[in-house]
Specification:
Number of strands: 48
Number of helices: 5
Largest sheet: 22 strands, antiparallel, barrel
Distance between the termini: 71 Å
């Protein structure tokens, strides 16, 4: 035995540390592996495995992997996942063990009741402002034109406000639309809308999981201030060939998936297309010889999702996935032609590796491309206008399960941005006249993070982390900032948890728009020497409880957000054909705060939720000179400020064949800008028309409240080859005429030789978009 004399206190500390390590090494072992769907082999995200009677458990990550470290012994392990039968097994854990568990779907046939994730799991988490969407439940809800839409379902959740009537645009906790990060298989999607915003680009048949983060953002996410919508595509059935699809009022879709190497490799391909253009083409052809006939423009959209995966061995998996979608609008009258198309393309290559039972790694490379093009030909002259965004990204993420009380996550990411802004070309037929304009900007976005989810005791749990972000502009400007994350949970009783969090975020790219809704022509613009990054600090307090045993979960969260360097336009700014667009910006500050209540029932024949949001959103643009101010530099409410938002969602399975669901929404009116003066157009045929000449007043009129009720009835069939159903959706059941556009109607006969104030006889008129709309959709699965 060798020894060395050291100070007594140091010797005691060394002895204690060595004793803890030895005890841990000798007495603790790790159960790790994957949890999958038994029928399809899909990895299940967020499945919970617990060692019964110990209070110890773990959940699967985004890739279906889990690791649970507990003392040596024999345990009964229980696995729960929404929509699946609870699975239990006994394991004598006397060494590190890796297993794959496969769960049976719970299809609710006959007297079988749907099992849900235990609401008590929410009591254990520090996470606030996070909601998981159940895809199967979402497909039961009534929808517009029969198209199930992820982004419209988000609008039914607390803290999420919708944009214009029927559109997929949304605002989260008082933030702008561009402050939402939407990612598909880790690749960002810059414009997630089809049909000018009325449908999203996400085909529900190709989606496995949707997570919404409104606050307390995990340190692995960065780049946006208001929310993260993380969408994961299905991997594909690696057990057997299967498919599903639907035939609707304006679109049809079809998905095919199956094994490449059974149990190890699979594929999925999903496609969707509208076909309204087929009918308009027939009508146009039938009337082509009629000189008085007005040609109907042709419009359609389509999208394709595809994914491949291969399990090399028990520690390595690779994935390839992609999305491609386009909207096409065209109009041709011979002497005049007009075309408008826009769309997204994404690609993801991913590698999962298990270094040890406690260390899991995911490395991915992604590509994102969004562009729009407007073209027109008239009088031998052709012009093209467009914009283009392209991202190349690489990142690596690690999960290290240090012990049963510590989950450490760390990683790094880099994204190279290319912004091709306002491309414009003009050319005549003989090429004698040609003009080209445009501007290309670049940026390199960096991120490094680390976090620890620490079970301090049975009552206290802490999640703390730090993200460092940086942005190198094409002009050499370097912006960077630390972004701390902190969340704390205190378990007051077995049924009640109190939570608090703080998050700081930076945003280096932003959407510049002169419209109240997201349009394909809106322009993404990066941080430069003259355009600083947007910044936001968010504070949250909340309580989570379960009611009536485990049947209901209730959360109540209060938030407060402070914004810096938010951007808007100077009065009179020009969005298109503006090479120096950054000189048109004005920068300001903002504040948003509110209270969100969310009551949810996930188990049984009757499911649904009630959400209520009370919210305020204010902004201020106070520059050093008048041209850099808005509304005189005073604080005013943002256009998307809505005081009260209520959503009620209910679904009831009457029998195993018949179910009914309904949604009701009420929103306080948002704000819009209407002129206070006008100039009459000197045209006898347009006596009511005016040109707005007062652009300094923003958001000066609040619209009437918005409310609507939708209903859906689903009748399921049981063919021998699989499953099918007929779904009747009724949008806007009581035919409420909600405002889509408002304008001022100036009465005829008002003298108009110069700029005048709006006369007393003028009235505010509204245009409504969607009356009651019934839709019948046939869905099938084999």
């Amino acid at each position: 035995m060798h020894y060395k004399t050291v100070p007594r206190g140091i010797l005691i500390l060394i002895s204690l540390f060595v004793s803890i390590i030895n005890a841990s090494a000798q007495n603790n072992y790790t159960l790790s592996g994957y949890i999958k769907d038994k029928q399809s082999g899909e990895d299940l995200i967020g499945a919970v495995i617990t060692a019964v009677g110990t209070g110890k458990g773990a959940s699967t990550n985004t890739y279906g992997y889990f690791a649970l470290t507990i003392p040596q012994g024999e345990y009964t392990f229980k696995i729960d996942y929404l929509g699946y039968k609870t699975f239990q097994t006994k394991i004598n854990l006397n060494t590190n063990t890796r297993m794959t568990f496969k769960l049976d779907p719970d299809n609710m046939m006959g007297e079988v009741e749907v099992k849900a994730e235990n609401p008590r799991d929410q009591l254990q988490q520090t996470q606030m402002g996070k909601i998981d969407l159940n895809i199967e439940q979402m497909k039961k809800l009534p929808v517009l034109f029969g198209e199930v839409d992820v982004l419209k379902t988000l609008q039914l959740l607390p803290g999420v406000q919708s944009g214009s009537e029927g559109t997929t645009g949304f605002y989260v906790r008082g933030g702008a639309q561009d402050q939402n990060l939407i990612i598909l298989d880790e690749a960002p999607v810059y414009n997630a809308s089809h049909l000018f915003g009325f449908f999203s680009v996400f085909n529900s048949d190709a989606i496995k999981n949707v997570e919404l983060f409104k606050g307390d953002f995990p340190a692995r996410y960065g780049g946006r201030l208001s929310s993260v919508v993380d969408i994961t595509m299905k991997d594909g059935n690696n057990e057997k060939l299967s498919g599903e699809g639907g035939i609707g009022l304006i679109a049809s879709r079809f998905t095919l998936e199956g094994p490449i190497v059974k149990g190890k490799s699979s594929f999925i391909i999903s496609a969707r297309r509208t076909y309204v253009d087929l009918f308009t083409d027939l009508i146009n052809q039938a009337n082509k010889n009629n000189p008085n006939y007005q040609i109907i423009p042709a419009y359609y959209f389509y999208d394709i999702n595809a994914k491949l995966n291969y399990e090399i061995d028990s520690t390595n998996k690779v994935f390839l996935s992609g999305y491609f979608g386009r909207d096409v609008f065209s109009f041709d009258r011979g002497t005049f032609g007009f075309g408008f198309n826009w769309g997204n393309a994404t690609g993801t290559a991913r590698w999962n590796h298990v270094f040890s039972p406690k260390l899991f790694e995911n490395t991915s490379a992604t590509f994102t491309d969004y562009e729009y093009t407007i073209s027109s030909t008239s009088n031998q002259l052709t012009y093209n206008l467009g914009s283009h965004v392209q991202d190349w990204s690489a990142k690596t993420d690690f999960d290290y399960i240090a012990s049963s009380t510590h989950l450490i996550q760390f990683g790094a990411a880099e994204t190279y941005h290319i912004f091709d802004i306002s491309r414009f070309s003009l050319q005549n037929s003989d090429n004698s006249t040609s003009t080209t304009l445009g501007n290309t900007l670049y940026g390199n976005e960096l991120g490094i993070y680390a976090s620890d989810d620490w079970d301090m005791s049975d009552r206290w749990k802490l999640n703390y982390g730090l993200r460092w972000s940086g942005f190198v502009s094409g002009d050499g400007t370097f912006n960077n900032s630390p972004e701390p994350r902190l969340a704390l949970r205190y378990k007051l009783t077995n049924d009640v948890s109190l939570k608090a969090s703080y998050t700081y975020m930076d945003q280096y790219v932003r959407l510049v728009s002169n419209s109240g809704s997201t349009l394909p022509t809106d322009i993404w613009f990066p941080t430069t020497a003259d355009v600083p990054p947007e910044k936001c600090s968010q504070y949250d307090l909340g309580v989570t409880t379960v009611l009536l045993g485990n049947q209901l979960s209730l959360t109540d969260e209060i938030y407060y957000k402070q914004y810096q360097n938010i951007v808007d336009y100077k009065n009179g700014s020009q969005l298109f054909l503006n090479k120096d667009l950054d000189t048109s910006f004005v920068f300001g500050n903002g504040w948003s705060y509110g209270n969100e209540i969310y009551l949810q029932k996930q188990a049984g024949r009757f499911t649904g939720w009630i959400s209520y949001t009370l919210a305020w959103s204010q902004v201020q643009f106070k520059g050093t000179n008048p041209e850099n101010t808005i509304n005189g530099g005073q604080v005013f409410y943002a256009s998307y400020d809505q005081r009260n938002n209520i959503a009620v969602v209910a679904s009831y399975d009457i029998t195993d064949r018949l179910s009914i669901s309904a949604t009701f929404v009420f929103q306080s009116g948002s704000l819009t800008s209407l002129p206070t003066s006008y100039s009459l157009i000197q045209d006898p045929d347009l006596t009511n028309a005016f040109i707005n000449t007062s652009e300094d007043v923003r958001d000066n009129v609040r619209l009437p409240p918005y409310n609507r009720m939708d209903l859906a009835i689903v009748w399921r069939f049981k063919p021998k080859w699989g499953k099918s159903d007929l779904t009747l959706s009724i949008y806007n059941v009581y035919d409420r005429l909600n405002p889509y556009i408002v304008y001022i109607d100036v009465p005829a006969g008002v003298p108009g030789s110069s700029t005048l104030n709006i006369p007393q006889g003028a009235t505010v008129q509204q245009i409504s978009l969607f009356p009651i709309i019934p839709t019948l959709t046939y869905n099938f699965k084999f």
